[in-house]
Specification:
The chain has helices spanning about 10-25, 55-65, 80-90, 105-120, 145-170, 200-220, 250-260, 265-270, 270-275, 305-320; strands at about 1-5, 5, 45-50, 70-75, 95-100, 125-130, 175-180, 230-235, 285-290, 295. About 45% of the residues lie in helices and about 15% in strands. It has an eight-stranded mixed β-sheet, sandwiched between helices. Strands 1-2 form a two-stranded antiparallel ribbon. The protein is α/β, with parallel strands linked by helices.
């Protein structure tokens, strides 16, 4: 492209304009709610955060630790988990932060983790289902499930159900499921759970995030009057390791663009923290929050009660012991 013979894309004007636009976007990224000015304390409360060793999960765990909570970091990698654990303890000054291992792609791992929690913990006030991945190589897990659906949806679904009684006994308590605005591009085809009729990796991610919202809404309906709230959130377009399974060139472009236009992991944690601790979200359930901590309507499919009931029942069947 050129204007009067000038190659715009190689001209300094283009580079400078792009940088300025990026800086303006960065300055506008933070929403109206700031966790740093929220004085809610969590002393005496227990919180579980999955995927807490990196990205937004790490900043969610750090925020809870700074508020005085007993924090259970549910991580897949012990080495990376221990590194994050030490950092969170040092930054928060809270020694009551603990590492427990879980791989949400494995139902056996989820059951073992939940069994340990039920034996060790007397209460659970906050459950953050944050762990997830995009672009995973297509494969079937030992449970007969497509790996992205197991990691992003069915594993967290099972974990939540296994811990429900503890959450009820600890009420008021909150469940927050980290979804994505990409759920609007997802589709519901229950054969996807066994890896049938699937296309590219990004579409798979979108489908899993749609199921997150559908089942969050259905669970909220089932828990009415229990004192347990369930909401789903969009953290924003965040520069994290979620793209680590994509090809190098895709990751490079994502990271370069992200320097100027995407949220940092700390900023991306905001909407989840808002749902989990803010006084103004207490008692709100069955809702979907965007990255600016605003209530918005999710995709039409996520509001279909009949579909929600069917989806939940199928997920229960798929995650039940044989």
């Amino acid at each position: 492209m050129s204007w009067v013979g000038i190659d715009v894309f190689s001209h300094p004007f283009w580079a400078i304009s792009t940088v300025i636009l990026g800086l303006v976007v960065r300055s506008l990224r933070r929403g109206s709610w700031d966790p740093r000015v929220c004085d809610v304390q969590l002393k005496g409360q227990t919180a579980i955060v999955t995927g807490a060793n990196t990205g937004i999960g790490k900043f969610i765990a750090l925020d809870f630790a700074r508020r005085g909570a007993r924090v259970i970091m549910a991580c897949r990698s012990e080495a990376r988990g221990r590194t994050a654990l030490r950092e969170i303890q040092e930054l928060s000054g809270n020694a009551n932060v603990h590492l427990r291992l879980v791989d949400t792609s494995s139902l056996a791992s989820v059951r073992a983790f939940a069994e340990g929690i039920l034996l060790e913990e007397k209460a659970l006030h906050i459950l953050i289902n944050n762990a997830g991945a995009s672009g995973l190589p297509r494969k079937i897990t030992s449970d007969g499930l497509e790996v992205s659906f197991a990691t992003n949806h069915l594993g967290p679904f099972l974990l939540t159900n296994l811990l429900l009684d503890l959450l009820k006994r600890s009420a008021p308590s909150r469940i927050v499921n980290v979804s994505s605005a990409m759920h609007r591009h997802g589709k519901v085809d229950f054969s996807h759970f066994q890896s049938d009729n699937l296309n590219d990796g990004l579409s798979v991610y979108n489908h899993t995030k749609l199921h997150n919202v559908i089942c969050s809404n259905e669970l909220a309906r089932r828990l009415q009057g229990s004192g347990v709230s369930v909401n789903s959130v969009h953290p924003g377009v965040v520069k994290t390791e979620v793209m680590r399974h994509y090809k190098f060139l895709v990751r490079l472009i994502f990271n370069l663009v992200g320097i100027f236009f995407f949220k940092s992991a700390e900023e991306g944690a905001t909407s989840t923290i808002y749902c989990a601790v803010a006084e103004e979200t207490e008692g709100i359930t069955g809702k979907y929050f965007d990255s600016d901590c605003s209530l918005v309507l999710p995709a039409l499919l996520a509001r279909d009660r009949g579909l929600g009931a069917k989806d939940f029942e199928i997920c229960e069947r798929l995650t039940s012991k044989p």
